Each structure stands twice: as C-alpha cells, then as structure tokens.
TrEMBL record, chains A, B:
Belongs to the FPP/GGPP synthase family. CDD domains: Trans_IPPS_HT (cd00685). This is Geranylgeranyl diphosphate synthase type I. Keywords: Magnesium, Metal-binding, Transferase. One of its GO terms (molecular function) is prenyltransferase activity. Coiled coil: none annotated. GO terms for biological process: isoprenoid biosynthetic process. Pfam families: polyprenyl_synt (PF00348). Its cofactor is Mg(2+). Residues 1-28 are annotated as: Disordered. It comes from Actinorugispora endophytica. InterPro entries: Isoprenoid_synthase_dom_sf (IPR008949), Polyprenyl_synt (IPR000092), Polyprenyl_synt_CS (IPR033749).
Amino acid sequence: MPKTPVRPVRPPHRESAEPVPTEPGDTSYASIPLLVERHLEDFLRERLDSCGRIDGDFAEIAVTRLAEFVGRGGKRLRPLFAWYGWRAAHGAASGPGTGPVLRAMSALELLQAFALIHDDVMDGSRTRRGAPSVHAGFARAHRRERWSGSADGFGTSLAILLGDIALAWADDMLAGAGLSPAQWTAARGPWQAMRTEMMAGQFLDVYGQARRDGSEATALKTNRLKTAAYSVERPLHMGAALAGADRAVVGALRGYGADVGVAFQLRDDLLGVYADPESTGKPAGEDLREGKRTLLVALGLRRARDRGDRVSLAVIEKVLGDPGVDAGGIDAARDALTRLGARDAVEERIRDLADRGAARLDGAAIDPAARDALRDLAVRATVRDH
Amino acid sequence: MPKTPVRPVRPPHRESAEPVPTEPGDTSYASIPLLVERHLEDFLRERLDSCGRIDGDFAEIAVTRLAEFVGRGGKRLRPLFAWYGWRAAHGAASGPGTGPVLRAMSALELLQAFALIHDDVMDGSRTRRGAPSVHAGFARAHRRERWSGSADGFGTSLAILLGDIALAWADDMLAGAGLSPAQWTAARGPWQAMRTEMMAGQFLDVYGQARRDGSEATALKTNRLKTAAYSVERPLHMGAALAGADRAVVGALRGYGADVGVAFQLRDDLLGVYADPESTGKPAGEDLREGKRTLLVALGLRRARDRGDRVSLAVIEKVLGDPGVDAGGIDAARDALTRLGARDAVEERIRDLADRGAARLDGAAIDPAARDALRDLAVRATVRDH
C-alpha cells in the first residue's frame, strides 16, 4: 500500500446532506451529528499523532483507515439517541457540561465501527456503505502490492485488528471524556451492558445461522439484542443516566427504546427483502441470499408449514443462504412471503411496537419537548423507505 | 455442541504445580497467581450468571469457553509484573487496599486471553496450550454437529467474538475493581497505552510478514511492542502508578521492563528454533515454518548477505514461511544460523539487556526486597529452557 500523508478524519464528501450547526454551542437535535463528528475528529487526530510516535506504518495504514471508516459514519444514530435520553431526563441543552457528555456519547460511534468491521468479517460482506468493507479493502491492497501469503488472510487479520482498536478506543474515549465521577459511575452500567448485549446478539446470529434456527423467538431475540438494546435502548439509557435520571424515567425510556428499536429492525428486515436496491444501496434480496433468519422469514416458514403449503416452503428455503440464487428465485421467495401474509404480519407488528413504544413515554417525568421529539422519531424510524 | 451445565472457571487439572497461598491475605509473590485466579473466577462467575439471564446458549457455549480458556492461563505473568511494580513503588503487601489493586491487575489476564485468541486466528494456529485453539475447537464442534455453512468460518467468527468479549470485559473488570478515583486515573495511562501498543505490535507482525520485512529494526520493534511493552514494561508501570509512584521510580521500572521484556522475547525466539520440543510443547522449528521475522533470523540473513554466503542464505530463506518443510530443512537452517554466529549474537544481546535492565533499578527509590526480586526475575526470565 503506498504511504499517504495522514489525512483529515472527515471524508471529502459526506454520505448525506445534514444540517450544519448554525453557531458554536448549538445543540439542537439537528446539530448533534456534526458535533459528534467534531469530537470524533479531535479524538482520532490525537490518536493518529500518538500512534505516529509508536510507528509510522501503523498510524498511516491502520489508524488512518479507521479514521476514514469512522468519518463515513452516516446518521450518528446512537449518539443521537443518547442525546435524546439526556434531554428527556432534563440534561441541559447547552453550557459547559454538555461538552464532556457529547464526547462520551460520541464513543458510541467507535463501538459501532468495531461492530460493523467485525460483523463484515463474520458475514463475509465485501461492501459497506458503497465501498469495500475493511477486510475486502486490505485484501485488495495485498493483491495489488503482490505481498507474501494469503491476501484474504491478510485482509481478515487487519480487519480483526482494526475492530479491536475501535473497541479499545471506544472505552478510552468514554473514560477520557471528562465526565464527573458520578456521571462516569452512572454511565458505566448501560455502557457495559450494551457491549455484552451486542456481542450476545452477534453470537445468536452466527450460532442461529449455523444451526438453521428458523424460530420466531430466536429472530426476535437477536433483533432485541443486536439492534434494539444496542442501537436505541442502551444509548437512551446511557444519556438518561448521565443526566442522573431516576428509575421511572430510565424505565420509560428503556421501554420505548426496546419497542421502537425492534420496530426499527423489522422495518430494516422488510426493506432488505422488498425495497428498491436504488434506495437502500444494497443488492435486492441480499438478506435472503445471506440466509438471515429474520422474523419475516420465520413467520413465512411457519405459516407455510401450518398450511401445508409445500411449494411456498420449498421456494423460500431454496434461496436462504444460497449466494448463487438468481433474481427469479428471489422474486418467487418474496412473492411467497407476501402471499403467506408474513409481510402484512410484520407491518402490523411494526405499527404495534411503535405505538406501544411511544405510549411508554406517557406519564413519566420526561421533558415535554424531548417526548414530542421521541414520538416523532418512533414514526420516522419505522415508516421509511431506506 | 451439546449443552453442558455451567462449569466452574478453574479447569480440573492445572498446567503446572504452583504454590498455594498458605493463608488468606498471603500476598507473597508466590501466592499472586492463585489470588489472581480467584479474582478472575469471581468476575467470570458473575458474568456467566448475568449472561445466562441474557441467553442460555450464549452463556453456556461462548462465555463458558472463555472462562475455561482464562482458567488455563499458566503463569499469570502480567499481573505478577504489575504486583512487582506495586511493591517496588512501596504499595502495601497486605491490607484492605490490596484487594481492589489485585483485581485491577487480574484484568491483564483477560487482555491476554483476548490477544491469544485473536492472534491464533490471525496466525492460523490450531493449538494453544496443548489443546485446540478457540477457532479450531469451534470449527471442530461445527463439523461434529454437522451444522450449516463453513465450519472454519464458524470457528473464526466465534473466536473473533470471544476475543472481543475478553477485550471488553478486561475494561469492565478494571473499571469495576473498586480502585480509588486517584488510582483509577493513574492506572488509565499505562492501561490505555498498553492496549494500543500491543495492537501496534500485532499490526507490525502481520504487516511485516506480508511484506517479507526481514530487517533487524522491525524485528526488534515488534518485540518491543508485542512483548516488552505489553508483557513487562506496562504491567510494571501500571502497578507502580496504582501505588502513586513518582516519575523517577516509574522511569526506572519502565526502563527495566523494556530491556528485560525484549530479552525475554529473544530467549523465546531462540527456544522456538533450538529447544527440545519436549520442553516447549511446540513442534521443533515452528517459528521458522511460520515465517516469524525474529531478530535471530534477521541477523542470520544479514550476515549471510554481508559474507556473500549464498548457500546459507538459500537454506534459511527456503524454510521461512513454508509449512511443508521437512525436519532436514529445519536442521539445515538451524545449523546455518549457528554457523553464521546469529545464535551467539542473540545470546550476547540477551545478557546485555538483562544486565542493563537490572542496572536501571540502581539508585531509584525502589523497595529493596522488590529490587532483589526483580533482579532475580531478570535472570530467570532470560536464562531458561522452556
């Protein structure tokens, strides 16, 4: 790989147009993603410097790649949910205390980088955000430079390492955010639980696929751990804990997060099968080809079995986990899932979860503006086309 | 994999006979490994319980395997060095403050588990401590149970996950050790530096092998980061920092650690090539077969080139990274390294480093008993046959 000068963390063009904060200290929800990125840039620039003093190649090849990956991070959803939790629990919208809190929340993006990099290795995914995944990119560099040994092995090794670095540094960023001792103690619980839950979810995903576990229970549990807890519930919990929320507020927010988080994932599952590839940026039917055991698929399989509909059963089972299946096979499986009512059942479940989640905020001592924003978010996260 | 009841963390038979502490509260050096194991058992048992509440399969298959791996941990060298650092900087030998400190030091063993599990994946090592490595073991279970998909892919995925868990939990164990705020702040510096340095060392190892980088400088730098800093220097630093040591004491201990740590690794390198397989538990010449770029090999290659000794050069280069090389090839390469004086040169370097390391303790305000013990350790770690 040719050496390049250490690049700025922010990529030259951003994935989507996001509102730019109008002034320093603006912490409206719309400004949070950019503030998060500023904290990440500061942290990673400092790490690039200190790693450069350890070894130039390490900094320029490994750490720069991580910074680039984190820079392309999209919506900054998890820090955003943490900020919602903070505001919901009456954390200040601005002032000297918000800097450390936002820095601590930004560490969630390093955790997300870790999860994506390692998940891509485990799933053998060759693309991520429209570019080669980390392991695929390093394997390509190995081939281009005609290095010694296996290119794929090299790519996997460096992706494992880069994910490890992101995981370790997520902890470093949280620990060094400048929180008060009380905040640090309060944040530790949700932070630690989230890390373990996301790994448990990934375990169930890998283990369930190996065992061809097509049960609805496993699909929902994996959803709950991998997405709901890790992406919504625990970030909200962490934000509320940082603001010193009491049990009732934490309970309401976690309940909301669990419901809306699962609904969010169920929407993703539907999009993964039914959406226009143009709007999702993923090949049509990729989730089916990868054999992902979603609730949609579990419901379809069960309904086909209950009805003795062997044709639909065969059509769906044929495509699951078959990377070589053609467009006709995907179409047939998709139609079977619709015909069996699995699609409608998941749509209904999404509506129920979003409604129930929003209702959980009623009655708790939550900041009214934050409550409105969270209700709005429950709709936007579950009714979307990409 | 058949489900098994959650097993105790300690394996039924231990790797080597180690002295058992004579009484509770005995914190002589000989008792440290067992006290460390007790802290690890407590921590992991609590995690097994809490993970069982998340998901039974996750706890029984993933977490139990990690606990088993940690239980087979051998000499507990890194916590031991941390304890030496603590005692050298006048930390108390017993009393209420030693529990949290030893618990914090025990987290180094989770970090070590993480490093070994992921390194074995990267190196493709199929055995570890006389048993299948984590990825090899899970791949075997996959084959035995005739699960779906690639057995090797499954093994790799679960080993990545198990390493991730160990890394995350190492931080959790440190953060929850019960240190005072001042101790926690003091320990963070060496802890964070150590994690980054070990990953930088592993990067250089993987990257250097891919580029067939045979330089002495890279061999020594990889040594310094992967072994010296991570195994000796930073654990000593962490222990001293926990005791509130001043810069002079920390400097002396780190200097000792860097020198003795490199010497320790150079001894390992020599044993990897010359030792009787009976005493090391590894196949003869495995390091050569794996293409490890040690100082020994770097010196041999350079000397052969300087002398225009093309025969020796060819003999050594032939075996490097060739898994299929036979015993005759290994013998020839070994003889060439001896004949070229590379072996003697490494022996001399080990003696110099051990002497210089021990001398660095002179003059600093280090506890005399700890100084004697560290001097003794410098000899034992560098003059050994396994």
